[in-house]
Amino acid sequence: MATFLYKLGRLSFRRRHFVALIWVALLTLAGVGAASAPAAGNSSFSIPGTEAQKAFDLLEQRFPGVSADGATARVVFKAPSGEKMTDPGNKAAVRETVKELGDGSEVARVTDPYQAKAVSKDGTIAYAQVSYKVSGMELEDSSRDALQDSAQDARKAGLTVEIGGDALQTVPHTGSSEIIGIAVAAVVLVITFGSLVAAGLPLLTALIGVGIGVSAITALASALDLGSTTSTLAMMIGLAVGIDYALFIVSRYRAELAEGRDREEAAGRATGTAGSAVVFAGLTVVIALVGLSVVNIPMLTKMGVAAAGTVAIAVLIALTMIPALLGYAGRRVKPMGEKGKRLGRAPKKPERPNLGTRWASFVVRRPIAVLLLGVIGLGAAAVPASSLELGLPDDGSQPTSTTQRRAYDLLSEGFGPGFNGPLMVVVDAKDSDDPKAAFTEVGDEIKGLEDVVTVTPPAPNKAGDTATITVIPGSQPSSVTTENLVHGIRDAGTDIKADTDANVLVTGSTAMNIDVSEKLNDALIPYLVLVVGLAFLLLIVVFRSILVPLKAALGFLLSVMAALGAVVAVFQWGWLSGLMGVEQTGPVMSMMPIFMVGVVFGLAMDYEVFLVTRMREAYVHGEKAGQAIVTGFRHGARVVTAAAVIMMAVFAGFIGSSESMVKMIGFGLAIAVFFDAFIVRMAIVPAVLALLGRKAWWLPKWLDRALPNVDVEGEGLRPDSDRGDTDRELVRA
User: Fold this and answer.
1) Which residues pair with 75 in a beta bridge?
2) Distance between CA 350 and CA 704 in Å, rounded?
3) Could you report the per-residue pLDDT of 384-405, keeping only the tens digit for each?
4) Exposure letters 84-122 (e unless 16+ CB within 10 A, then b)
5) Among 6, 10, 218, 423, which one is least packed by beta carbons within 10 Å?
6) 3-class SS string, 134-157
C-alpha cells in the first residue's frame, strides 16, 4: 500500500492542475445539485419490527386518510385570574380561534374544546387539538405562521395561549459557535506549523471535502428521505477528520523535507507513510459509522452511511489534493524545525528533546504509576454512567422559555402529567367473531390496570373490524411508571387474543419512544461486537500484533464509559449545565450510547493508528521497544495533540445547536476525544507498551504468514540496502 500511495502522491504533486480541477469540478457539481434540489425535511421516523410501528402501519390501512403519522398541535388556553374558560367572552375567543385553525389547507381536523370536553375540572384551562395531513417537518411555513397567528389573536382577547406538539418542529441551527470551532482549529494549525500557508492547507481541503459531502447529502435529501440532522452530523465528523488527516500528511511532508529530500519525493513519501495511516484510520471510522445499520433504525442507518461517505471523501482529498496543494505552495511550506523563523523567533536548538520525547521518556521510566493514574481517573469520570437514564425528548425536555414547554406545563396543571403522553391502543378484531365485544373487553381490561386515569370509548373504523382507544396515564411520558403501563397493556393483550382472537397493539409517541429505547439497548452489544471485532482484525493487519489491537480496544472502552459519565453529569444531573447552555435536564438520548460507541471508536482508532504506526515504524527499522515508544512520541505527539485539540474544537462548536440531540452529541464527542487522546493514547498506551516491551509486537508465525503485508511503515520505500541492514538488526535483536 505504501508504494501505491507513494506513486499517487508524486503523481498528484506533478499533475496538481488536473487534480485541483477534478475536486473543484466535483464541488461545483455537488453545489449545483444542492441548490436545485428541494429543501430537506425531517427523515420519516419508522422503527421496523416494533409494536408501535406495526400499529401505525395498521392505522394507515384501516383508517385511510386519518394521517396517523401527521403533525399535531395542541393549542392550550388559560383563562385570566378569577375567570373560567366557560365564560361567554372566553368561549367566543376560543371558538373564533378554532375556526381560524380549521381554514388551513394542510389541516386535517380541529377539535372544539367544548364539544370534546377538553376543559379542565376547575374550568381554567382548555385545549384544541389540530391534526395535519403531513408530518411536522413537511409542514409549509404558512401553516406554522397561521397556527401562531391564531394563538396571537386569542392572546389579544386576554387569554394565555401556548402551543405544544410537533407542528412547530423546525430545522435546527448550530449557531455561531460552529464558526468559533473552525477558528480555534485555524489558530492551532498556525501554532503547529508556524506558517499561514501550511496551516491553511488542512482547512482548505477539509472545507472542500465537507462542501462536497454536505452538498451531495442536500441534493439527495428528498430522494433518499434524509433528515436535516444527517447533514449536521456529516459536517461535524467530516470537518474533524478532514482537518486531522490533512494535518498528518502535511506534518510528515515537512519531516521528509527536513531530512533533505526534494519536494516531490517528500510529497510521495508523506503520502506513502502518513497516507497509509490515514487510509486505515478512515476505514475504522467508516466501519463504525456504517455498522450503525445493524440497529435497523432507518434514520440512524442513513445518518451513519452519509457521515461515512463524507469521511471517505476526506480520505481521498487528503491523499490527492494535499500533495497537489503542496506543489502549489512550493517553498512557502518549510521543513520541520524552520517554523520558528516564520514567526520571527529563533528556532530551538536541535539537540533539545521536545515535549513529546520528554513525556514518553518519563512514561517509559514510570509505566505502572502512569497506568494506574490514568485508569483510576477515567474510572472516576465513568461513575455517573451507572445512573444513566435513557429516553427520547418530548416537549417536557424543552427549555422553559419555549411555548412548547409552557403548553406542556399548562396541560399537566389542568389535566395531569400523563395527559402529555397519551397512549393509543389499536384493537385489530378482523379475525374475531364479535369485534364489538372484543373492543369492550379491551377497554374494561385497561381500566383495571394501575396508573390509568382515563380510557376513552372505542372508536371503530367504517368496516367495524378495528378500533382505537386512547389511554391517559397518571404519570409523565418519560417516567418508568408509564413504561410499565405500556408493558402491562401489552401483557393483557396476550390474554385477550387468546379469548377473542383480537390483536392489541400500543402506539403513540410515548410507546414509540419506549420501543426505540429498548431496540437501541438490545442492539448495543451486537453492534459493539461487530464494530470492535472488524476493527480489531483490521488493526492486526496494520500493526501485525495481537496485544496492540487488544490494548486499543480496551482503552476505547475506558474512553467511552468516561465520556458517557460526563454526558450524564451534564445533561442528566445538571453539572455545568449553564455553561453548556443546557436549560432543561432529563434522560440522556436513547441513541446516545450506541452512537458514541460507533463514532468514538472510529475516532479513537485514528489516534491509535497515527501514534502507534510511528512506533511500529521505528521498531521494524531496528530500534528497541522502549526507544521506539520515545521515537513515536518525538515525531507524532505534537501532531496528535494538535489534531485532538482541533477535533475537540470542531465538536464543541456544535454545543451551540438549538437541537438537543446535536448539542449532546457535540459535547459527548468533544469530551470523548479529550479522554481518549490525552489520557488513553498519550498516557495509558505508552505505559502498557512499555510494560509489554517486545511482547507488544508478538504475532504467531502462522498468522504472520497468512496476513497480507500492507506495509503501513513504508518499508517498501526504503532502498534495498537499508532494508537488508534493518533485517540483520532485527535478527540480532
Assistant:
1) 128, 163
2) 39
3) 998 888 777 677 777 777 888 8
4) bbeeeebbebbeebbebbbebebbbebbbbbeeebbbee
5) 10
6) CCHHHCCHHHHHHHHHHHHHHHHC
Sign of the alpha-carbon torsion through 186, 189, 191, 194: negative
Residues whose CB falls within 8 Å of the CB of residue 522, separated by 6 or more in sequence, listed in order: none
Angle between helices 196-224 and 16-36 (to 10 degrees): 40
Q: Could you please report the per-residue DSSP string of 341-370? A: HHTTSPPPPTTS--HHHHHHHHHHHSHHHH
What one-character-per-residue DSSP string does 563-627 give? HHHHHIIIIIS-TTHHHHT--S--PEETTHHHHHHHHHHHHHHHHHHHHHHHHHHHHHTT--HHH
**Distances in Å between the alpha carbon of 35 and those of 28, 215, 232, 338?**
10, 8, 17, 44
Dihedral angle over CA of 22, 28, 31, 37, nearest 10: -100
pTM: predicted TM-score of the whole model, two decimal places: 0.77
Q: Distance (Å, rounded) from C-alpha 466 to C-alpha 247?
A: 61
Give the chain's length: 733
How far is residue 192's CA from residue 253's CA, in Å, rounded to a whole number?
Answer: 14
Reading the block at residue 651, the C-alpha cell is 465538536
Whole-angstrom distance, CA of residue 153 vs CA of residue 317: 55
Burial of 594 (0-12, 13-18, 19+ CB in 10 A): buried
Phi then psi for residue 154, to 5 deg, are: -70, -35
The whole-angstrom separation of Cα 205 and Cα 216 is 16
Q: Which residues contact 502 (CB under 8 A, 6 or more apart)?
A: 427, 428, 429, 431, 432, 435, 438, 439, 442, 496
Residues of the chain whose pLDDT is less than 70?
Answer: 38-46, 65-69, 135-138, 169-178, 225, 227-229, 337-351, 393, 583-584, 658-659, 711-733
538 near 284, Cβ under 8 Å? yes
Backbone angles phi, psi at 64, to 5 degrees: -60, 140
| Nearest Cα residue to 244 out of 264, 265, 274 | 274
* Cα 690 from Cα 554, distance rounded (Å): 17
Q: In sequence order, which ranges of 418-503 are alpha helices (DSSP H)?
A: 435-447, 480-500
91 HSE (CA, 13 A, CB side): 8
Task: Quote the CA–CA distance of 184 and 178 in Å, as a whole number.
Answer: 10
Determine how many CB atoms are found less than 10 A away from the CB of residue 656: 20
CB proximity list for 609: less than 8 A, separation 6 or greater: 277, 280, 281, 284, 539, 542
Residues forming beta bridges with residue 582, ordered by sequence position:
none
**137-152 pLDDT per residue, tens:** 667 778 888 888 888 8
Q: Strand, helix or coil at 6?
A: helix
Contact 217, 234 (CB under 8 A): yes
Q: Hey, what's the cell of 88?
A: 361567554
Per-residue CA distances from 493 to 442, 479, 497, 500, 563 (Å): 8, 22, 6, 10, 40
Give pLDDT, residue 38. 67
What does 500-536 look like in DSSP terms, one character per residue? H--EEEEESHHHHHHHHHHHHHHHHHHHHHHHHHHHH
Please provide residue 63's backbone torsions phi and psi, each rounded to the nearest 5 degrees: -125, 65
Dist. CA 446–CA 639, nearest whole Å: 62
Beta-strand relationship, 160-164 and 72-78 = antiparallel
Give every CB contact of residue 29 below 8 A, 6+ residues apart in sequence: none
| Dist CA 161 CA 167 (whole Å) | 16
Nearest to 101 by CA among 170, 34, 152, 44: 152
Q: Which residues, 6 or more positions from 96, have their beta carbon under 8 angstroms from its beta carbon?
A: 153, 154
- pLDDT (0 to 100) of residue 340: 42
* Separation CA 617–CA 386 (nearest Å): 40
